[in-house]
Each structure stands twice: as C-alpha cells, then as structure tokens.
Design brief:
Blueprint lengths: L2 H6 L1 H5 L4 H9 L2 E5 L3 H13 L3 E6 L16 H5 L4 H12 L4 E6 L7 H5 L5 E3 L4 H14 L3 E7 L2 E7 L7 H6 L14 H4 L3 H19 L10 E5 L4 E5 L27 E2 L4 E4 L8 H10 L3 E5 L3 E6 L2 E6 L4 E4 L4 H11 L3
Parallel strand pairs: 1-2, 1-4, 2-3, 4-5
Antiparallel strand pairs: 5-6, 6-7, 7-8, 9-10, 10-14, 11-12, 12-13, 13-14
The structure holds zinc ion.
Zinc ion binds next to α9.
Length: about 350
C-alpha cells in the first residue's frame, strides 16, 4: 500500500474487521455488478470508495429523469444527454476514486454472454430489477463456482442474501422450492408499479456492500449467512435461515435452464411502459442510421456516442450500438417488433 492510501483508507483500516491486511486484499480484489440502477449505483459507490481494486459494471439502460430520486451516481445532465448508465457510472466513479479500475459495459446480460461477462471475477453483485436476469445470474454463478449477492427492493421493502456455491442455499433453492413464506417471497411488484423509496434501496444495497467487503477482505466467517429483509416504513426487520434444497434444480442437479436460454424470453418487458427488443446480433452504425431516419422524417433524431433516440409519436425508440432497442409507449411486443422492423431493419 502506498502512503497516501494509508491516509485515504485510514478509517477503514482502523476498523478491526478489515485492518491493513483486509485493505490490501480489497485493493487487489475485483467484482462485477449486474445492473446499475438504484441498488447498483449505491453498491458501486460504496465499493469504489472502499478501494475495491477493479469493478465491472454491466447495464443495458440509459439514464432517465425518473431515476434521479434514487440512483445516486447520476445527475440531471446525464438524463438530459441520455447517457447509458454504465457510461455515466464509470465517469462518476473514476472521479470518486482513481485507485479503482472501473469498466462500464453497455449490454444486456443474456444466456449467450453471461459466462463471458461474469467469469474471472471472485464476486457477482445483483443490481438488477427482474427475476429472469437474477435466475440467469444464479445459474451462471453456480455453474462457474462464483459467490454472488442477491438483492431486491420495491416500495419501502427489500431483501438480500449472500449465495456461495456448494456452501449455502442458492436463489433457485429460495424461489423454486415452493415453500416461500411472506418473508422469503420474491418482490413481485416492480418499481414501475409500486414505486420505491430511496431509503429502502440504500439499506439493502448497504447490507449487500458490507457482505461484499467481508468476502473480498478475506473475512467470510463474518458473512451473515441468512436472508435479510427490512421494511423502512413499518420498521420491521427479519433475518431467516434458508436451507439448501437437496433436490435444487440449479445447485444440486445442475440443470442451468436459464443459462441454456430455455427459460429466457427473447423480448423482455423492462417496465416504465417499455419493451426491450433484440432482433439482431450484429452491431449497428448509429450515425448512418441517424441519417437514414432523418431522411425518413422520424422526429427528433438525436444521438450521442452510445445510442440514438428518435420519436415516432406516440412511441419513442432508443437504439444501442449492439442492435438492442428500447421502445417506449407500448407494452406489446408485437407492436415493438413491427416498429423495430420498420425503422431499424431486420
Ligand atoms: Zn439451489
């Protein structure tokens, strides 16, 4: 450790659970965060400030003004410029701590790219907003033997659980055993329908970050080992032991159906009256597409280095260089598909 790093991390080194040896480990550690919304921004901020050496952040979305209430790394200008969250987060985090190597990746984690995006890291962190992706991450983590931390929040409530392959229950043990109680039930409502308090997200993401720091600082014995839930409105906090399911589809039978793509629909509804569509798997030339759309009289064609956005009232389409598009103004995949085919091409 360099002398200036002793100073920078002094309050964390003073904490007995970390110490100098723990800080050295953190500086040499890495983690990948899947999803950089409310949970992901809070976790990323805490881990970068704690000096975790390398962080990859994967997110498929762009910053929207409705994100700013709880997604603590973003500013109004990011929403105005429609920056991808992974790009905006990387910029902000680099300014916060130049010791940390931060890599923002604009992508949707899919069965096809999950292993490539997640392998090589000793820890995966859940910053996603849906159970399809979480079960995919669970499959990938179990198959690769990488610990991961599940976290979810909606309304005033949130849950988190640290999952260690072969040592603890996994997300499929929790969700697919058919024995869920009200305390272990998945968060079914979404932030788009039930709203979310920034304080609920911050509590859960902070517990997630603390668990990550224990693992990365080499203190696994300090992990809480339970599913923790809390409601910041009612003040109810619970911690529950989750048993491994000896017949679990994922961690016992190793049937990775989400990773095999069998359970993953091609089109994902991603909330806020939008459909994500991924019809093609080759890259798009966004400036060429912009010229073509302007000539075709699409309204308000705007692009930055990462995406292109235009309006076809009552719809708004945002197209990424990897060929993905988010179509706002419909929840009907058929409508989204036909708009995609007409304006972007097959
Ligand atoms: Zn399991």
């Amino acid at each position: 450790m360099k002398p200036r790093q002793y100073e920078k991390y002094s309050r964390q080194i003073l904490f007995r659970g970390i110490g100098e040896a723990g800080q050295e480990k953190l500086l040499g550690a890495s983690a990948v965060i899947v999803g950089c919304g409310a949970l992901g921004t809070v976790v990323a901020n805490l881990l970068v400030r704690a000096g975790v050496g390398r962080l990859r952040i994967v997110d498929r979305d762009f910053v929207d003004s409705s994100n700013l209430q709880r997604q603590t790394l973003f500013e109004e200008a990011d929403a105005r410029n429609a920056l991808p969250k992974a790009v905006a987060a990387e910029r902000r985090l680099r300014a916060i701590n130049s010791d940390v190597q931060v890599e923002g990746v604009v992508a949707d984690v899919t069965p096809k790219n999950a292993a490539e995006l997640l392998s090589g890291f000793p820890l995966i962190l859940d910053g996603t907003d849906n159970f399809e992706t979480r079960l995919l991450v669970n499959d990938a983590a179990i198959s690769l033997g990488i610990p991961w931390i599940y976290a979810a929040a909606v309304g005033s409530y949130g849950v988190t659980m640290t999952i260690r392959p072969t040592e603890s229950a996994c997300l499929a043990c929790l969700l697919e055993s058919g024995e869920t109680s009200s305390a272990t039930a998945p968060v079914e409502a979404t932030c788009d329908t039930a709203g979310v308090l920034n304080a609920a997200v911050s509590v859960i993401a902070s517990i997630e970050a603390a668990e990550a720091i224990k693992l990365l600082a080499g203190r696994p014995e300090a992990l809480n080992g339970r599913l923790i839930s809390c409601d910041v409105w009612t003040g109810k906090f619970q911690s529950i032991r989750v048993a491994r399911n000896p017949d679990c589809r994922a961690c016992a039978r190793r049937e990775f159906v989400f990773l095999a793509g069998e359970a993953q629909p091609h089109i994902t509804l991603c909330g806020r009256d939008s459909v994500q569509i991924h019809e093609r798997h080759r890259r798009l030339d966004l400036s060429e597409l912009g010229r073509r759309l302007t000539a075709a009289a699409a309204a308000e064609v705007r692009n930055n280095d990462f995406l292109l956005r235009f309006r076809v009232p009552p719809y708004e389409m945002t197209v990424f260089a990897d060929g993905r598009a988010i179509i706002k103004g419909t929840k009907d995949p058929a409508v989204a598909r036909s708009l995609y085919a007409r304006y972007i091409g097959a």
